[in-house]
Amino acid sequence: MQDTRTRLKNRLSWLLPWLLVSLLGVVWIASQTIDRQRALFETDARIVHRLLSQQVVQHDAILATLALLQPGHTGAQTGEEATPEQRLTALYPHILTVQRRDRDGTWSDPALQQAENVSQQQKRAALAKVDVTKGRYQLVLAAQPMAYALTIDVRGMVPWADWPMKVDSSPVRVVLAHEGQSFLIQKGETDTLSTPSLLDWQFNFSKHLAAASQPFDVVATQTFKWHQLPWVLMLLWPVLVAAVLYLISFLLRQRDARRRAEELLRLGQVARLNTLGELAAGMAHELNQPLTAMLANTQAAQRMLADSPPELETAQRAMTQAVAQARRASEVVGRLRRAVEQPESDQGTQALELGDVLRRAVYLLEPEAKRLGIVINMQSAEPVWVLADSVALDQIVHNLLMNAFQALESSNAEPKRLQINTAQSGQFGELRVADNGAGIPEDVLPRLFEPFFSTREGGLGLGLSLCETLAQGMGGEISAGNQATGGAEFTLKLPLSKQQTPST
């Protein structure tokens, strides 16, 4: 259960950053695309406004030129000489007609007369008639002795050669608006005038033309729809983020695996050294007694043989050599014991939290637990601070967990569970390691911590003995037993620390 929660927590720890970075990236790509489309739209709209403004300003210039260069009208001139302004329609195809009011004459159309009056008041050209259905309008300029009126085709005045968009395929709709009426210049998308949905973006541009005499507004609109977003790129972005995060996760796992291997190697080296020390101490203990007895017996024999007749000189030399060899063996064993004897800890004991030590050991053995399919559950009602040597406590916990792993490896229990609890018991802090394996046979329990006793093939039988020695050296104890529900349980007790933080 604990392993499942850990895996779920690890996945969530990567899933949330992936979702966040993916969402931010997709939003950024979409916003950049929309901003770029809006910038293109505004650029094209401004170019359209400039081109159309140049055309209407040109209309004012044409009328002003006609007013300045109008010929003297005496009635003697006829034909083309009398009406030179009619040539304008050939020079400017979008100017459909050029009308003139002669001296003391009147316009045939009252709208032209009204526009001339306005023009005279405003001292500039004025609109006379706007025909939306035909896409035409008239422009009148009051002058003396003659006044002029132009009939202009709106679509014809558009400079298509300089137009910034493709008229047939551009999604931008362009119209000239005047008093609620509008001349369609570029159709754009057929549904541009429809109300955009919440997923669409509406671009709008509206600006007066540069000529006050022709008070038209250039109105451009474009609807940018959600399906026009670069979905391929937006979908590739989360895939790229996932690949990068997976690579980072892989590198972190490699680093963690390397750290685990280094820590396990360190613990293994410490364990081998301590085991060698136990082995050397046991050998010294086992050999010193017979060697001492051999030395005492050979010395006694040497003294007795010294009182014998001279013919026993050969036996005397043999006993002397035996004494020399016994002394030499004793010296070798003594040197071995001194060389491998466990040194005193440089750090001594310090305040350690059992939960931290336990989590560190479980972290190191996590790959082995996954390989064996062991579910580890750790419980601690409160932090338990004990007074212990850091290296020794790490080694004890490591040995207890490895013994439990070995017991569960040969067990048929499904699932294989390892329960680890920490608690306070009187003046001691307790660490309990319990598995649901086959348990410890009753005849093995009394000898479990005996040096060189092992039920595992190839085992030295020094692991639990070393754990007991280390625990006792820190003022604690270690015990083993079977649970009522089955499986073995080991209990480590260490003195509680009076301080709740590690000593410095």
Walk me through what this model shows.
The protein has helices at residues 2-69, 79-82, 88-91, 110-122, 231-306, 313-340, 354-364, 366-372, 390-409, 463-473; strands at residues 95-101, 126-131, 136-141, 147-153, 173-178, 181-186, 201-208, 217-224, 350-353, 374-380, 385-388, 416-425, 428-435, 477-482, 488-495. With 504 residues, the protein is an alpha+beta fold. The protein has three domains: 40-71 and 81-228, no CATH class; 232-340, Orthogonal Bundle (Helix Hairpins); 350-495, Heat Shock Protein 90, CATH 3.30.565.10. A five-stranded mixed β-sheet has the order 10-12-13-15-14. The radius of gyration is 52 Å and the shape is rod-shaped. 24% of the residues are buried. Mean pLDDT is 80; it is low at 73-80 and 342-346.
What's the short version?
This protein is of the alpha+beta class.
Percentage of residues in DSSP E strands:
15-25%
Q: Residue ranges: pLDDT <50 for 5 or more in a row?
A: 73-80, 342-346
Tally of extended strands?
Answer: 15
N→C terminal distance:
37 Å
Structural class: alpha+beta
